[in-house]
Amino acid sequence: MTVYLNGEFMPIEQAKVPVLDRGFIFGDGAYEVIPVYSRRPFRLREHLERLNASLSAIRIDNPCSHARWTELIGKIIDSNPWDDQGVYLQVTRGVAPRNHLFPKGLTATIFIMSDPLVTPTRALIESGAPAVVLQDFRWLRCDIKSVSLLGNCLLRTLAADQGAIEAILVRDGFLTEASASNVFIVSNAVVLAPPKSNLILPGITYDVVLEILRANGIAHEVRPVTEAELRSADEVWCTSASKEVLAITTLDGKPVGHGAAAGKPGPAFARIHRLYQQFKATFMRAPDAHGQP
Ligand code: PDD
Q1: 203 lines ligand 1 (CB under 6 A)
Q2: Residue of 37, 183, 191, 226 with fewest CB within 10 Å of its CB?
């Protein structure tokens, strides 16, 4: 695997960072995960805008222009063998003696790598996935895509302890998101999504799903969703760059939904999943560099 670190492309084994890098010492940095379909980065502009927002929230000057990021990401895609990739990029504040106060004038550390993109298998799409509901004990700036992910990692592991693929999170009686994805529910034929706030990551896939719902006249509301609504939902979906849209079919071991449909991906999921795949296909055919269909 070829990666990029601070101005150079190299095999991953050769990529080394000093131990005083603030990313290592404090988790002081921001990151992005960009899905690449047929060697074209999906929603690149939006990912780079979110990176900008994360960096500016933690007072790191973005070390690259949009054009430079586009060039570097393009080179990483070209230098790896897979057509569909997940590009990971991270910026940390740089290397300095350990001190909580943000030092000024550091040179940011820039790292980019890519893996084969692993999306849900057909079997998982057809069966749906188990999740558990946990209290969201993370900090109050979950809108920043920070590399400090200890809370998310612990929650994901607590979910895995119970055989679940995701921890769906509630705070003060309301749905926030999941440990590594956003969450939608379907209640009485209306798709509900928690609004963007400091409590959730503004997901790029979340925006794409809302765009698709709007474009197809599918009833939906962006509004706070209670824990009771989550637990009694007809359908629950998770969305992320790698999960795309995935049905959650059990919560804490209980089937999601009602009657004969309980515990199976529902009709609204079948529709949004098909529309999402069509949206991707349009993107892969789109002629402009950013592929906005
Ligand atoms: N995670 N919420 C959280 C906490 C996330 O970590 C992610 C994505 C999302 C969905 O965002 P997007 O649709 O832009 O992927 C929501 C990435 C994939 C990760 O950390 O690997």
Answers
A1: yes
A2: 226
Secondary structure (DSSP) of 142-209: TTS-BS--HHHHHHHHHHHHTT-SEEEEEETTEEEEESSSEEEEEETTEEEEPPPSTTS---HHHHHH
Which atom of ligand 1 is closest in space to residue 200's alpha carbon?
A: 2
The number of angstroms, rounded, from the C-alpha of 287 to the middle of its chain's C-alpha atoms is 26
Cα of 151 from ligand 1 centre, angstroms: 14
- For atom 18 of ligand 1, the residue with the nearest CA is 241
Nearest residue (CA) to ligand 1, atom 20: 180
pLDDT averaged per 10 residues in sequence order, the chain, 293 residues: 97 98 98 97 98 98 98 98 97 98 98 98 98 98 98 98 98 98 98 98 98 98 98 98 98 96 97 97 74 45
Distance in angstroms (rounded) separating the CA atoms of residues 165 and 147: 21
- Contacts of residue 236, defined as CB under 8 A and 6 or more positions apart, other chains included, come to 131, 168, 183, 184, 185, 186, 230, 247, 248, 251, 256
How many angstroms does the Cα of residue 54 sit away from the middle of ligand 1?
13
The pick from 31, 33, 171, 279 for probing ligand 1's pocket by mutation, whose C-beta has the most ligand atoms within 8 angstroms, reads: 33
Please work out whether the CB of residue 180 comes within 6 Å of at least one atom of ligand 1.
yes
DSSP state of 92: E
Under CATH, what is the fold of the domain 2-116?
D-amino Acid Aminotransferase; Chain A, domain 1 (3.30.470)
254 catalytically annotated: no
Query: 90 CB less than 6 Å from ligand 1?
Result: no
pLDDT at 286: 78
Q: What's the CATH fold of domain 122-281?
A: D-amino Acid Aminotransferase; Chain A, domain 2 (3.20.10)
